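Entry type: protein chain
Record version: 2
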Amino acid sequence: MTKEKRNLLIAGTITGVVSVSLVLLGNPANMGFCIACFYRDIAGALSLHGAAAVQYARPEIIGLILGAFVISLAKKEFRPRGGSSPMIRFVISFFVMIGALIFLGCPFRMLLRLGGGDLNALVALAGFIAGIIAGSLLLNRGFTLGRSQQQTPLEGGAISAVFLALLIILLFIPSLLKFSTTGPGSMHAPIVISLAAGLLVGILAQRNRFCMAGGIRDIFLFRDSTLLIGSVMVLVSSLVMNLVTGHFKLGFAGQSVAHTQWLWNFLGMALVGYGSVLLGGCPLRQTILAGEGNSDSAMSVLGMVAGAAFSHNFGLASSAQGTTARGRVATIIGFVVITAIAVVIIQAKKKEAYNGN
């Protein structure tokens, strides 16, 4: 086994254990980490939406970004860069979030839900893979968001500064934020433990290029399973932890913060996979890259926050009772918009190459 594979195995195992531990300490079931859900909660805490059940400035997200920021500085890997189609990234990320809130979870939570016995996540996994394959075909046809350019440290560190400010507000001026008293937003591990968990996973993810979409993409395009090892170990270790602690519940019905509409679980995560592979990484990877100084990924983070706020303000997000008509329409629109963007870019690249000859 190569050093890279061994490190991914260790990182994935630790991440799975930490994720279930956060649930044992207060987070919602199968939601030790959920990048989409946590950005949704942060949007609520900042009064960007009015859904009272999902409002909390999640320290795990703050830890992920600051962990990636600190370790990239320490390892001299903090490289401020950006300018690679930032607004297109914002739009794609916006729809990635809509897809995630149709399923009720990001790829990270999909694995944790599966590790907890939620078979709805198995349907979502099939959709996620299908979306990644579709996006990979577009990559093969020449889709690209262009090259990023070197930027100033101020630009690269701006998103980390924003989340550091959010942490200071959470710790010392919490009256500026909204907090759920019922629902998933009211369920959380202690702040210090959540922050420490985020810092640890942020460091591990930065050092090992952890990305669930990238792992499946690499198998399809390059027949390389290296990057997938981390995701597999998150699933395996969370499964073992849930079995040991008695939190494993096999089935479709009665799962926490989940619904059983299989078609929309499939399509929601297909949209997430489709957009993520075109962005160059899943929501977790975009979060870590933002901490490393990538302002394009910072735009993706902002796109996800905007998508979460929009979803709850306009009734797109699913609930335990299922999807909404608006949410289903928005999912289809997401596929149409992202595909249209891809087609326009591919055609422009072809014209550029033809004129160059």
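Comment: DSSP finds 14 helices and two strands in the chain.
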